[in-house]
Amino acid sequence: MTELPFEQSLARLEDIVRVLERNDLDLEQALRLFEEGIGLLRSAGSALKAVDARVQQLVEAADGSFSVVDLGA
Fold first, then answer.
1. Alpha-carbon distance 44 to 13, whole Å?
2. d(CA 67, CA 73)
3. Which residues have a Cβ under 8 Å from the Cβ of 35 and sit 6 or more positions away?
């Protein structure tokens, strides 16, 4: 399975949850969707960690200079 962009992964996860909540699937179908959902969840989690590692804020000092502050700290 190719990795989807974060937003598409979330949308697909929402679709999977809706289908699983209907309770009209046989066990094999439900398991396949569950496995797909777990893969998407892991992929989205990795994407969030990567973004979190890059999140930084520029702060302007009184003298007009800028410094980079890591928001993850």
1. 10
2. 15
3. none
